[in-house]
Structure formats: structure tokens, C-alpha cells
Design goal:
DapA-like (chains A, B, C, D); alpha/beta; homotetramer; 4-hydroxy-tetrahydrodipicolinate synthase activity (chains A, B, C, D); Dihydrodipicolinate synthase (chains A, B, C, D); eight-stranded parallel beta sheet; globular; TIM Barrel; 8 strands
Chain lengths: 306, 306, 306, 306
């Protein structure tokens, strides 16, 4: 799983009665492939994965595997509180035909770093697919410590990391540790610090905002690969301005509803999906917030009108 | 649901292959009823609920409803990350025949206080059973704020609260607020501050340690009802010493594994269950830790030998 | 230093140009003595101690020693970031003639628990006065852990504890540990949980609200000593309602400015001090907030009018 | 105060009896100037400023002003809990002849963002020197929020920021906000993310490790000015390895004692200062830790032997 580049966490369009909207999801997937992305991460946090039961999750994977047809690697999040439930999702993902799994630490239950290692070991032993560890303390409320990641790598239990911790210094220290291990793949989950992450050794990025502007992130990645840091910074600063679409719901809504809701609203305004609501109890963006998203899209050149 | 008194969160004995051990669970339930408890809380945090899938959860409820046969009220935890998944569990619990539900805030996803109100509203609308709100920030990482609980009460969406937040001052302010609403029921989730909680207005307690010594907690409750606070404190202090069984695994294990593991180990030493292991990735107490649990049980008069 | 009972942290009235208002401070001290308090804590957090330089602090102590004239024990806070600066204040306090010191952990600098022990040892070696350790993580951002307090007691470095941590469970475990050491004195810094603190073994309380209603807290303490917990709770619940005077500034001001400002405003309305402002940059209560304080005082029977 | 470049926070060498070691301090200052630094920050956190009383602080400034003799700008930290005490230090600093002040939010007392603005306003009105705001939540436990900094800039109350918050994403958003205000100066307090900070718009860096290797940081800054990011990263990675000297004391000591102690130990091993101890209660590095510091210095080419 020598992943690299831009691997957006795909949002899940919903029908009015909260089912997976297959035609809309296919349009989103084609939009991302047309944007030049290097992989796709299904069933990540931005997909509302923890709102979906097993049949809905299987449905998402079935559609993605069919639509993408091997053009880019597919990662599947297998996110649920505890080991055996994660393994059940992992088996479903394997059956669906994805190329790798994305695994968080257990949550709700408080788990020690040693127990986290056992969690990854159990998933690895149950399902023979590459695993990307997913460090997202804002959701699971425990950090995958550097020493833990070192053990997981040394024992061959993970092949990469998606770091959504926001701790850029720690990420850099990780990157330095992994310099001698080119097969281990480091991705940042940040939308806003991609140029610097690539400069200090990341192999790529998993940007929620990449749902809206995949070509922008691909251009940023290409500039970084050429070491044209001036251009990379220029694109990154435009994407930071665009990221304002993710902030229009707060403080009325939760940050999650504001972020995912902002991405879905933008995709609706771009004509890719017919609805921008999310699973309960997330509040969708209201009319005023939607107008602000529209103005941001227009200001950044993604919408002709408004 | 005019609940009161001691309502232990029942642990779930497991067979060696991680299934619900029905004979052992029945023995634990009889042990609790023999201890005089006033209700039972199935599928709470101490039951390892988030480790169990829906069939396992239904199995626990089926056994409990059958074994208890209406002698005391049964509450069922319906704990999973998001609204619709909670509702699915709530329907299962209703079908099993329990008397009430215990509902936390959503987790993994970060949810605003307003969205939490909508979460409770959706559960209420889906399933016509009394609801006890469960404030457990150490697991869900959001507090059920006093203002939120006020809204939930005012809108008739909850009938009680289990407070496992450890914030005794806030609990007292809640108790004062609810003095004019005798139908609203306040329970502490603390094992260690039950006498003071009852003194300041709690209606009862949901003590994990009550699995091991239900009669002790019932005696404490009875002393409090007579306002014999000297006796209540005396019993509470003995139970605090006994609570040391929940601390023998740390720091080797997580606090959760140490606590639930300590309760299960004690139940095994008391001859009630044949195994003390937990679901993966929780590490069970080792031989040395088990000996320390045995010594504590003996010192507090629950075991003749050791 | 066999302290017990109600030991209010005395506020510091200020002249319009931010100097210690001696006549007003003397009136507050007489008000507290008239209320029957069992000791006085000068230069605590409620006194705005960290706003005062050494001459102002000496002035406060000079006035208090003179006014109190040995009728009750006097404790002096010696609160500043680091060891040698604390010792300098401790020498001033000794020279002023107080009976004991109140010492926090170092702050601003992050200090380990072992370094905290050395901090207390250095103060003890420099100044031969009894020391009450002051656990106030909300200000110093480190907890005096139970193991640390055990070391401090075992090595004879402290004679008591003022616990303003809000962690009532930990306080109870401390009280149990200290049952065999009757000379060690445990005080709660809470205004709201005094009855329960006394029930579980505290020797007394250091309530900021005691500036306003010392007789109320003395009556609560007396009820607790008689083990009349019904009366103690009744008084405590009245004092909880009165505590609303400390909450009228937020969220406009900081919690500190709202609390100390509320106490000072009440003392002004009671005719004891002419000004209710605080040191910069704390914002004093405004006219609207002052009216609300007045209404609360009237509702609780401390003001005839309003 | 158009500051830029490398402005180390100068450590304070101490004599065996804890006084400022003037000859050693002069050697450190010459070492920094020889290294090509662009300014000096006296009485910062690394100087143990909160351990020093006013005379010691004045002594440090007197020596620095004399030794530096105008060759580079001098900033003075005026760090103490509250406004008027900060102003007293600011007057001393002005009298000593420094070029600017470095001001934190108040600490110990909890202060609102609005009160923080008043704090800066009061310092500004009292002392007519440029002010660099110092965001160091790990010490003062409050963040200088972006909206607060916006107000401080708009009202002309500060001329720059030293960001030691470790929140690189927020720092970048600040840098973007300030692009239209070239007179406002942004410095990172990080030792480890200097290349990326400069790439995203910082004007310079205040590295504690710059005490040990000022020429290294100057070379990094020069590479960044030429936009030679490959070279900048190469130097940064060497300095990250060198930073290990700051980590040898933990967990035996506090992070502060380990960091400042590591810098002082390195300066002693480099022959610049005769003692490496710190103010009480900080524990100095022991013999074993010192040997590890020596090995790191040798491995990074700063010491011939070892």
C-alpha cells in the first residue's frame, strides 16, 4: 500500500429519508476522480460513518468499488467503539474489495496504550489487509502516542498513519523517525497545513475540503512534489480561504455539523448532490449560512454566479 | 418510573469464547436480588455494552427479563455513538420488556448541547419508554449541562438522571433545581460518595461495586433513609475500602479494565462466575492482582479464607 | 495549629486609587469576628493577593494583626510563582505576627510533584511557622496529588490542607487517609459543599462567601458539630442561593472578577466598605449587576430594603 | 520595532548562591552576538524570570544593555501575575534602556479576553515602549485568542507576537490575517518548526535552543530568506536532533527544569558558564543526564571530545 498524494475522505450524500443516495455518491466519486485524486477514503469521519449501521456502510463500499473500478486505491474506515465490532466492519470491507483499512483507537471505553496495541494486533490477525492507523483524539479522546506507533510499526501491525491530531510538531518528529522506513506512509488530516506537512516529510493528505475542490489539493500536491513551495503556499492560502465554508454553522451547530454540512452544502451548490442534510441529530446549514457558503465559493472562483 | 434506591449496573459474565454466559449471569442477577437491590441497570458501561453487538445485547436483556420476572424494575442502556443506532437498540430493549432506557449523549461525533436535546427528542419519539439521561463525560467527552437537563425536563423528554460526572457540586445544584419536581429522579453513579449524594437529595445510586456487595449498598441506603448519617458514613467508608478491588489493575491496564476486571474477579472469587476476563482489548487481572483482590475481599469480610 | 471551623479568606477593600482601605478593612474584620468565625485567612485568592506588591501585603497583615489582637488565629497566604519569592513573603508574614502560612504549588513554571515537595521543604526550613498547603489547580494548574500530600505530611512539612480543587471524592479519600492523624487539619475551599465536607471528615471551611455572611457559615458549622445534618443542609441550601451574588458578572467578566466583585459589592451594599472595585484589569460589577446582587441579598434576608 | 530573525531568550547563569553570574552572562551574550543573532530577549521564560525579584531582573537588564551596547535590539520580558506588577517591571525595563517589552496575559487569576485587552492597554499607557504580546498558554493557562490579538492590533496596543502556544494552524491563520500589516511582527517560540513557520509568514523565531547554537538558527533563517527550503529543512532537522539536550531530565524533573537545565548544562560543557543549576525548586541535571547531553553535543558537532 504505497499510498501517496491526495486521498479525500468522501462524504456520503443522503436521500430525504436518510438512505445512501447512490446516484449522488457516484457523482461525487466521479468529481473526485476527475479532480485527479490519488486515492479515496470511504467511511471516514466526514462520511458520517458512526451514524451508519453495517448495511449502510456496506452499501457505500459497494457503490465506491463499482464506480472507481480500480482506478485509484480505496481505503475503508472501520470505525466503531471496540475491537470485535471493528473486526466485523473490517470483514465487510474486505468482502467489498477495498485495498486497505483505516483503524482508530477504541472509544467510549478508556483504553491504555498497551491495550491499543492489542486492538490493532487483533484487527491485523483477523483481516489480511493493509492498515492505516487513524490518530483523531478530538473524536476518540486518546492520542496514538509516538511510542505506541513505534511499537505498531516495529511489530508490522500498521502500514501508515493518518494524523488528524493537529499536533504538527509531533507529526514532524514522527516523520523524522520514519525517514528510514520508506514503506511507512504518513498522511495529514489537516486541510490547512498541507504544504508544510509535505515539506517536512508527509506522503500526502486526507482533506475533507478535497470533496469540494479536489483539483486544488492535487495542484498543491504537484507543486510540493516539484518543490515549488511558493506556488504550494499560494494554493494553500486560497484553500484556507475556501475552508471558511466549513465554519458557517458554528456556534449554532456543532463543529462536525458545520464542517460536514459546509462540504455537503457546497456540493449541492456545485450541482453534485441534491440534498445537504446529515444524519440525526446534526443540524443542516440554514438559508443564511447557505448563502454565506455560496458567497465563499463564488469568491474563490468555484461558482460563476452569486 | 418512580425509581429509587440501589440499582447496580450489572456486569456481563462471558464464556471462554466471549459469549454471554447465561448461567453465570443468572447467578449474578439472583445475587443482586438476594442483596435487596431496588432495580437493575443492564447494559451500562460496567456491562461492557459498547463491546457487544445487537444480538449479544438482546441476549443479556432476554436473560434478565426472564430471571427477574418483574420483581424489580429493569433499565437498559442503549449506548452507541449516534441517534438512529441508539433508537435501534431502544426498540430491541422495548421488545425485550424492560421498564426504562438509559441514554447518553452521542459520542465520537462532537455534538452541541442543542443537538443533544434533539437526540433525546428523537429517542423519545421513537420509543415510548421512560428515559434516564446518563451523564458520563469520561466516556462521551461532553457534559450534559444543567441548562440542557433543564430543557430536557421541561420538554418532558427525560424522567431521571444518572450522574457519573464526578462533579458533586453540579449534582447538588441539580438536586436543588429539581426539588419542586418529585417525579424527576436523580441517581449518582459514584461508588464512593453515596451517603453525601443521598444527603443532598439523590434518590439513589448506580454503583458498579454493588455487583460485589449489593447488601452493603442496600444497608447504606436504608441508613440514609432513616437519616442515620453516622451509620451511613460508617458503611460508606467500608465500601470505599472495598472499592480498592477496582484499582489493582492500573497502571498496567486501563482504568476500565481495572474496574470491571476487579468486579469480575471478585465475583469469581465469590463463586458466582467461572471466568473474570473481558472483551478485547481489555486485559484481565493477572495472578498477582487477583491475589490482592482476594486479600481485600477477605479484609472486608466478604471472603472467609485468604 | 489545631485549626477548625469557619476561616473566611478576607477580601481587601481598596481606596479609589487602589490602595488598601484601612478603615474599611477593619470594618470587614470586625464584621467577621462579630459573625463568630474561628480564624481568618488573609492574602488568599479572594484578597486579590497576586495583584498586591510586598508593601501592600505587609499593610494588610499589619492591619489584621492589630485589629484582631489575638482573638482568633490568623493565616497569611504567601502566594507568588516560585520558592524564594514565597519565602520572602513568608518572612514578612512572620514579622507581621501571623499564626500560620498558606502555601500553593509554584505556578507559571511547570513543576513536578517531586519539585513541589522541595518547594514546601524550602519554605518550612526558611520560616518556622505552621503551613497549610493550598490545593487550587484552577489557579496554579497543577494538583497537589494525594501521594504528594502523604509525603509532605510524613516528612512533617505541612500541618493542614485547604482544598479548593472541587474534587470532593479525592478530598474524601484524603480525609480517610488522615483519620489516624488528628493533628492534620483538612479544610474545604468550597462555599457550596460545606455540610457534606464536614460530614466526611473536614475540620472546617474557608468560604469566600463567608465575607458576606459569616454568621451563616458559623451556624452551619455548629449544626454539623451537633450532627444535626437536616439543619446543616437547610442552612447550606440558603447559602447556595446567596452564592448567586458571585455569579452576576459572568460572562461579561472573568469568574474571578465576578466572584470577588460580587462579595465586594455585597459588602458595599451592607454598608461595610465604600467601594466595590478591584485591582486592574478586573472589571467591577456594573449597575445592573449590582441591582441583581442587591435583590439576592434582600431575598435571603441580609438586606431589609430592595 | 521592525524586528526579524533569530532572537534567543537568554538564559541567566547563576552563581553558587543563586545570584546573577555577571561574567558568565556576559560570555553568553557575546556567544549569541558572535553567532549572528538579530536581537535578544532578556527575562523570558527560559531566563527563569518568574524566579527572580525586581533587583535581580534589573541586574540582568543592566548587564545586557551594557554588554550589547546597541548592536542588536533588546527585548525585556515583564512577567508577573497582574497588571500593576507588570507595569512596575516595565518601568524598570524602560529605565534600563531596552528597546521593547514582552507581555503575557495575567496568570494565577483567571482573566477574560476582554480583561486581557485592558491589561495590555494599561501597560501601553504606563510605558511608551513597543510591546510584543507573548502567547504561552502552557504557563499562563489562557490563550491569546485570534479575536483578542485582532483587537490589540487594531487599537495599536501591540507591535508583535511571540507564539509559544504550539498551535501551528492558528499561527498560520494569524499570519494570513496580518499579511496586510507589514509592521506587525510574528515570531514563533518553537525550536522545532522554524522552517515551516518562516515559510508561512513568520518574521523570526525566539528559540531557547538558540542559547546553545545561535549560528545554527541564523543559518536556518538565512536559508529561509533565500527560499532555500531544502537547506532550511536540513538545518532544522539537525537542530531537532540537538534539541534532545532539553529532554534528558524528564520524567525525573519537570519539563521546565529539563529544558532550561539542558541548555545550561550544554553551555557549561561548551565552557561558557561555570554552573548549570537553576533556581529552587528546579532540580539540575544529574551526572548521568549530563553525560547524555555531552554525547548529543558531540554527535551534532558542537563538542570535539566525548
Amino acid at each position: 500500500m504505497q499510498l501517496h498524494g491526495i486521498i479525500p475522505p468522501v462524504v456520503t450524500p443522503l436521500t430525504p429519508d436518510f438512505q445512501v443516495d447512490e446516484p449522488a455518491l457516484r457523482r461525487v466519486l466521479r468529481h473526485l476522480l476527475d479532480g485527479g485524486v490519488h486515492g479515496l477514503f470511504l467511511l471516514g469521519s466526514s462520511s458520517e460513518v458512526v451514524f451508519m449501521d453495517a448495511p449502510q456502510r456496506r452499501e457505500v463500499l459497494r457503490i465506491a468499488v463499482d464506480e472507481v473500478a480500480g482506478r485509484v486505491p480505496l481505503l475503508a474506515g472501520v470505525i466503531d467503539p471496540t475491537t470485535d465490532r471493528v473486526i466485523a466492519h473490517a470483514r465487510d470491507a474486505q468482502a467489498a474489495g477495498v485495498d486497505g483499512l483505516v483503524v482508530t483507537a477504541p472509544f467510549y471505553t478508556r483504553t491504555s496504550q498497551a491495550e491499543i496495541v492489542e486492538h490493532f494486533r487483533a484487527v491485523r490477525q483477523a483481516v489480511p489487509l493493509p492498515i492505516m492507523a487513524y490518530d483523531i483524539p478530538v473524536c476518540v479522546h486518546v492520542k496514538l502516542e509516538r511510542a505506541t506507533l513505534r511499537q505498531l510499526r516495529a511489530q508490522g501491525l500498521i502500514e501508515g498513519l493518518k494524523d488528524s491530531s493537529g499536533d504538527d510538531t509531533n507529526f514532524r518528529l514522527l516523520a523524522l523517525e520514519c525517514q528510514g522506513d520508506p514503506d511507512f506512509r504518513l498522511f495529514t488530516g489537516s486541510e490547512l497545513m498541507v504544504d508544510t506537512a509535505l515539506m517536512i516529510g508527509a506522503h500526502g493528505c486526507v482533506p475533507g475540503l478535497g470533496n469540494v475542490d479536489p483539483a486544488g489539493y492535487v495542484a498543491l500536491y504537484d507543486a510540493a512534489r516539484r518543490e515549488d513551495w511558493r506556488e504550494a503556499r499560494h494554493i494553500q492560502e486560497r484553500l484556507i480561504r475556501l475552508f471558511a465554508i466549513a465554519l458557517q454553522g458554528t456556534p449554532r451547530t456543532s463543529p462536525n455539523a458545520s464542517g460536514v454540512g459546509g462540504f455537503k452544502t457546497a456540493l449541492r451548490l456545485l450541482g453534485l448532490i441534491p440534498q445537504h442534510h446529515m444524519h440525526r441529530p446534526n443540524a443542516p446549514l440554514n438559508a443564511d449560512e447557505t448563502r454565506r457558503v455560496e458567497a465563499i465559493l463564488a469568491a474563490e472562483g468555484l461558482l460563476a454566479h452569486a
